[in-house]
Amino acid sequence: MNGAHALLATLRANGVTTCFANPGTTEMHVVAALDDFNDVRGVLCLFEGVATGAADGFARVSGTPAATLLHLGPGLANGWANLHNARRARSPLVNVVGDHATHHGALDAPLQSDIASVASALEGWVGRPTRSDDLADVTAQAVHAAYGPPGRVATLIVPSDVAWDDLSSPPTTWPVLARDVLRAPDEAQLRRALDLLRTKRAALLVGGPAVDAEQLDLAARIAATTSCRVVMETFPAITDRGAGVYRPEHLIYLSEFAIAQLADLDAVILVGAKDPVGFFAYPGVASRLTPAGCEVVTVAPPGTDTAAALSYLVDGLDAPTLGPEAGERVDVPSGELTSRMLAAAIGATMPEGLIVSDESTTGGLHLSGATRFSPPHRWMTLTGGSIGMGLPVALGAAIASGGRVLAIQSDGAMMYTPQALWTMAREGLDVTVVALSNRSYAVLEMELRRIHPDNEGTPSARLLELDHPAIDLAALATSLGVPSVRVTTADELVVALRRSYATPGPMFIEAMLPRGIN
Amino acid sequence: MNGAHALLATLRANGVTTCFANPGTTEMHVVAALDDFNDVRGVLCLFEGVATGAADGFARVSGTPAATLLHLGPGLANGWANLHNARRARSPLVNVVGDHATHHGALDAPLQSDIASVASALEGWVGRPTRSDDLADVTAQAVHAAYGPPGRVATLIVPSDVAWDDLSSPPTTWPVLARDVLRAPDEAQLRRALDLLRTKRAALLVGGPAVDAEQLDLAARIAATTSCRVVMETFPAITDRGAGVYRPEHLIYLSEFAIAQLADLDAVILVGAKDPVGFFAYPGVASRLTPAGCEVVTVAPPGTDTAAALSYLVDGLDAPTLGPEAGERVDVPSGELTSRMLAAAIGATMPEGLIVSDESTTGGLHLSGATRFSPPHRWMTLTGGSIGMGLPVALGAAIASGGRVLAIQSDGAMMYTPQALWTMAREGLDVTVVALSNRSYAVLEMELRRIHPDNEGTPSARLLELDHPAIDLAALATSLGVPSVRVTTADELVVALRRSYATPGPMFIEAMLPRGIN
Question: Which CATH fold would you assign to the domain A339-512?
Fold first, then answer.
């Protein structure tokens, strides 16, 4: 029994049984050991950013870490952007990164690099055992660190000799570490929050774990009893939505509008969310979004029991239960395909229990309204701002849930990780992709026009266009094994969505939208 | 005049006029400033690994750095794998990485990350000015550092306010730093090398800049006068090949074979190459490739004048000039398409002056022999072992040279950076891609069988197969705007190659090979 066996056995003992893999030679003993662990599912990805994004999606849906299997520094770096999103989603995740054998590292072979520096920038946990006999314990520590709470990215660097060396005395059981529990919220802060809710123009800013249906209902009760507003963080990792689920305001993405949104507040109470700051800085625009003098109270920082915090406030206010908000599902749309019609088509057709991976950027402007009274569903967003998450996260969510996933995917962002489509086909996953083809980096065109209004036809404008040549997204998907269709009207989109929801396996729908923002 | 103008003006003043870009909001002022620099060429890439690989290829062919333009930590990370290859190629290269505004960084906005840690793992140069007035000087330092010698990856982190703030007093000229010159080789080591060449079983191990036609000719003269062997490093950044160019032995990739290759040597003289070590470590196989007791003499470490070192040895040995080795170009092949036939088709058709980007891995086994007496050409390889370099490096080489580039590309490796095809189409570059479709990670299958021989049909074996589903590489290329053809015989491949060489713009040829190594 070698280190690779100890690694897989300990991962399994600690509940990690899915491994999104893009291995190389240094990981080959781990690959070989997979044959002795039939209950560990190895999922091949053609690019590491797919593997890490899939592990993020897996964690968001299941609350459980998946492992990745990556090849030295370049493999970790290729996966880093989606690990950044996972870090911002507070997803528990265990990277397994192969490295050169311990005796080989000092020789500066071509693939030698400082893996730990790349990993440390993810601000999670990093470990690198140097003996096979230590690997099980360090693996258990990695899973423990990944779980948190809050969840984090744990990176376990495994030198190849640590994987291939036999254990000196194989243990009869594998180490399992008890998970840390959520911390209780700070009662002094909760009391202060109660005061503010009773006396000030206040908002609950909810995020992290506080945006599931139950906790949103608690927030709704607080809002109904006081005059407070409930605002959801801009990019939640995963939230419940649809008919019967309370729908708070959404913190607006662009700083100027978010500042206006929060301008009349005296107090903001943070429940699982962070003190709100601009996604980007802009000349002459404040980076902090709350107005001067606004009191910010943190009742449930990361790792804290947000449900307990909300329950405390509900109890303190004696806030009664509420019935669900009444409303009608949007009608099935017909006619020209615009962002608005696209949103209606999705809202009118989505089945109950759907999981949505939303990387729609500008094309998704109308989705929230159009899905308001659709059957209950879950919604995942671009937590860390690192584009290329949509398809990989959908892939991981499909594996975690076994159910239908809808990826709503802008074209520019899709081109970072299109390889995810191949793994969807390989694994026969029930993923419906709606790709929003507007042939531009529309969000960047908007940003460029803000600083450079008269730029039509200039080199800068051309640098943000995706239509020379236009990418045939449907053909791209087909080339990777996913059946595809191109739709140019709302009617065609409705037909394609319904067909996909009724058909096992992945389907790719290229939705032809007007160019730019519409 | 703002910092972005100072950045571009200083880059241009120091000879950097090509920018491979995948920008975002933090880089938008640099994008806008491009409109005032018509002689700086912005080349849009859909993924950062394409931009960095292109900058590497540009540098290998021209000796001149290109810039990249990348978006914060995730952008740099996405480009890191090909930067690793550039680092190993000692390519001069200037990364420009946008960051949050200086006042925004402490707020931990979603895209905030430790960019410097990710950059530092490239072991080159890292700088981050915090005032617009400093940006020109720091930019000049970045280009200076990139040039070396030896060349290196310089990463210039530019906070967005440093780009957008106006300069307090715009200079009339921009800083230009004189380049450092190559160091002279160590004369004591050269004298020792002369002794060894005269008295011992010695080999010149040539690499880095010492593998162009002129320096290879010097090495050939040394070999002809002594009994020494000339061995080229396994993965040169760029080397001259073909009729009239001396062809040394090639250091074999797999350690066991390389150890056997060097086993009878008493001395190895390093000229631009490093002390040879195994690409990977294997159980029971030595990591150092030279035999025990073999003396290793470094006459020209990186940054040293390898031509001067070789000339010193030529003069010291009074080695006469040589005529070119005689030989016939391979015949045009016909019949079944195997790796051998593929190599012959390439060797029989390649035009003079072709630049080859070789990421053929196992499918390219026969290329070196088959192109031995083809017209003179240049050849680039996978210096750092981080796959996904072939298409991006070809793209950059085409922009640097303006001539025809041939990318010989394995299918597994191609799937890391297929987005490069789109930029080839967009820029109308004369790139011929021959994709070797064997539907497997054949090199990994070989590695797996070494440790796990009876694995047919097991989960581990399936994890290295690319044929469920098979990727339609030709359709993938077409979807990205590159005309494509699929060939199944040597005859068809010859026709397709000749047609591509005669047709401006890119062409993609999917060569259907038997599965695995053949």
Answer: Rossmann fold (3.40.50)
CA distance to partner chain A, nearest, from residue B437 (Å): 13
Q: Is residue B272 within 8 Å of B238, Cβ to Cβ?
A: no
* pLDDT value, residue A361: 87
Q: Which positions ≥6 away from A298 have C-beta within 8 Å?
A: A186, A189, A270, A275
B30 — alpha (psi -120 to 50), left (phi > 0) or beta? alpha
For residue B50, give the chain A residue with the closest CA.
Answer: A416
The residue in chain B having the minimum alpha-carbon distance to the alpha carbon of residue A279 is B109
Q: At what angle do helices B72-89 and B390-401 cross, to 10 degrees?
A: 80
State the SS3 of B455-474: CCCCHHHHCCECCCCCCCHH
- From B115, B287, B459, residue closest to A35, measured CB to CB: B459
A219-252 pLDDT per residue, tens: 999 999 998 999 999 999 999 999 999 999 999 9
* Contact between B120 and A107 using a beta-carbon 8 Å cutoff: no
Q: Which tens digits make up the pLDDT trace of B112-163?
A: 999 999 999 999 999 999 999 999 999 999 999 999 999 999 999 999 999 9
> Would the pLDDT of B452 be above 90?
no
Report pLDDT for B446. 87
Surface-to-core class of residue B106, CB atoms within 10 Å of its CB (0-12 exposed, 13-18 middle, 19+ buried): exposed
Q: What is the pLDDT of residue A518?
A: 65
To which H or E segment does residue B188 belong?
helix B187-199
CATH, range A3-164? 3.40.50.970
pLDDT, residue B518, reads 65
Q: 10 Å Cβ neighbour count for B501?
A: 16
Question: Tokens 């319904």 appear where?
Answer: A498
Task: Tell me if the bond preceding B171 is cis, omega within 30° of 0.
Answer: no
| Angle value at C-alpha B205, between B199 and B211, nearest 5 degrees | 130
B320 by Cβ neighbours in 10 Å (0-12 / 13-18 / 19+) ranks as exposed
Residues 6+ apart with CB under 8 A from A220: A230, A246, A248, A322
Indicate if B339-512 has the same CATH topology as B3-164: yes
Total number of residues shown for chain B:
518
Q: What is the pLDDT of residue B515?
A: 80
Q: Could you give the CA distance from residue A25 to residue B254 in angstroms, rounded to a whole number? A: 12
* CB-CB contact of B68 with B21 (8 Å): yes
Judging by beta carbons within 10 Å of its beta carbon (0-12, 13-18, 19+), is residue B264 exposed, middle or buried? exposed
A78, A110, A466: residue with CB nearest B279: A110
Cis peptide before A149 (omega within 30 of 0): yes
Q: Residue B2 is which amino acid?
A: N
Which single residue is written with the structure tokens 């713009």? B505
Structure confidence by residue, pLDDT tens digits, A96-149: 999 999 999 999 999 999 999 999 999 999 999 999 999 999 999 999 999 999
Which architecture, in CATH terms, is B187-317? 3-Layer(aba) Sandwich (3.40)
Could you give the residue ranges of the DSSP H alpha helices within A14-130? 28-33, 48-62, 72-89, 115-120
- What whole-number distance in Å separates Cα of residue B368 and Cα of residue B356? 12
Q: What's the farthest any 2 CA atoms get from each other in chain A?
A: 72
Q: CA A30, A31, A37, A40 torsion: positive or negative?
A: positive
Does A279 sit within 8 Å of B109, measured CB to CB? yes
- Of A32, A458, A463, Cβ closest to residue B21: A463
- The model carries a pTM of 0.98
Sorted by where each begins, the domain ranges of chain B are 3-164, 187-317, 339-512
Residue B235 · residue B381 · CB < 8 Å: yes
Find which of A2, A5, A20, A25 to mutate to test the B interface (most B CBs within 10 Å of its CB).
Answer: A25
Tokens 């690099």 belong to: A113
Of residues B324 and A379, more confidently modeled: A379
